[in-house]
Amino acid sequence: MRALSLLMALCLPAAAMAQEVPCGGSFSGFVADLREEAISQGHDPAQVERFFAPVRQDPKVLERDRGQGIFQTPFVEFSRKLISQYRLDKGRELAERWDEVFDRIEHDYGIARGVLLAFWAFETDYGAFQGDFNTLNALVTLAHDCRRPEIFRPQIFAALKLYGHGDFDPAGTTGAWAGEIGQVQMLPRDILENGMDGDGDGHVLLKSSAPDALLSGAKMLAALGWRPGEPWLQEVVLPEGMDWSLTGLETELSVAEWERLGVQAREGRLDDARLPASILLPQGRGGPAFIAYPNFRVYFEWNQSFVYVMTAAYFATRLEGAPVYDAGNPDPGLSGAQMKALQQALAAKGYDVGGIDGILGAGTRAAVRDMQAKLGLPADGWPTVGLLERL
């Protein structure tokens, strides 16, 4: 999700616009510039001084920013690591404990409880581990770093506004290393825009209040385009002779069209025949297969990691009663070094793979699928050692 500890922007290469945002130089001078900008926005100078007084650069934040190897893990392995019996049982227990809150979310936003429970589980183990990085230090450190200052600089001024509301402590508010706060890990700007006082105490406190956190997360999903009452992901069985080039997020057909091609739900029936949908093979034609409905794409507005999005969306279906997926027998994937070599080879042929990072993201999958088709291989988007050798 966009505002979670697996922040979507952290998977993106540095944007050209980053060069237009002030960054770098001495850290103290950078903070002085932030103070001046805050005052120019109309904030009280004394309040600005109190807000920035405790800020310090945090080198551990930069270490974490540059070490995101978890995204290189294949879907089956990744999902098995994240989805435990404890998280399933705890999720169902919390669904009952906060039944009225989830009923309100389902009524007001049309979002199934499993969706928010999955994020709650993955981000903080249902609030148990919310991160111990000082949030202001993290935001200012990442804004000073010149990789993505356009992402983090606005978050600093949003945190200042929350401070003015009494909902942020510059010295004491802690969270994830990338500046997200609370039980579902939202960035200050998202809290400012979508924060909900779910327990009626007059404050939006995502660290201590489950109703605040859940309702705020629901409002944010709605703002990102969640379509009320519609599904997001469903496991399917594919026909013999499937045209693998039709798989992937780049291709959308109606559910009725997929049915005519022989796609069937593994359990129950596919949803509304009129809905557009894509067929996803997270580990190629030998692994599990899913149909992704329009709401699935909203997940990418919150987080850009394909493997994370697939796992969060799938876990949400499990919490709603879906069975364990059929893992199949996928071809072995590539190591991180092999994936980088593949990306370099694809980039040399003119493909936009989104950076040589060893992560099988959407750009790399699309390039792999196209190259497989050109080489006469099954175009399922799953890179293998055989493909790498051919390149």
UniProtKB/TrEMBL annotation:
Gene3D superfamilies on file: 1.10.530.10, Bacterial muramidase, PGBD-like superfamily/PGBD
Organism: Salipiger abyssi
Name of the protein in its database record: Lytic murein transglycosylase
Secretion signal span: 1-18
PANTHER family: LYTIC MUREIN TRANSGLYCOSYLASE, MEMBRANE-BOUND LYTIC MUREIN TRANSGLYCOSYLASE B
Residues of the Peptidoglycan binding-like domain: 335-386
Entry's Gene Ontology molecular function annotations: peptidoglycan lytic transglycosylase activity
InterPro entries from the UniProt entry: Lysozyme-like_dom_sf, MltB-like, MltB_2, Peptidoglycan-bd-like, PGBD-like_sf, PGBDSf, SLT_2
Span of domain Transglycosylase SLT: 27-316
UniProt-listed GO biological process terms: peptidoglycan catabolic process
Xref: SUPFAM superfamilies: Lysozyme-like, PGBD-like
Transmembrane intervals: none
Record keywords, A-Z: Signal
Superkingdom of origin organism: Bacteria
